[in-house]
């Protein structure tokens, strides 16, 4: 295997940073991120396939939003 190109070195550095960041999350923070990802993925899949969104998708998005807000101390900037 030859030397890695500049973009490969940069990619590897980014991947290492991401792995380190994931290890620093608490279990509840990781669960909140995974819940948000799954909820977004499911809602978008339904929106694409059936051109509609289920109320359960909206409920799951709402739960995911609150989990992210609570785990990462996110505040609304709307007022």
Describe what you observe in this structure.
With 79 residues, this protein is mainly alpha-helical. Helices cover 75% and strands 0% of the residues. It has a domain at 26-79. It is built from 3 helices and no strands. Helix 2 packs antiparallel against helix 3 (55-71). The radius of gyration is 18 Å and the shape is flat. 4% of the residues are buried.
Looking at this protein, list some descriptive labels.
79 residues, single chain, mainly alpha, 0% strand
- Overall body shape: flat
Amino-to-carboxy terminus distance: 56 Å
Radius of gyration: 18 Å
List the total number of helices: 3
The helix-and-strand class reads mainly alpha
Reconstruct the topology from this structure.
Layout lengths: L5 H18 L3 H24 L4 H17 L8
Helix pairs in contact: 2-3
Provide a brief overview of the structure.
This protein is mainly alpha-helical and 79 residues long.
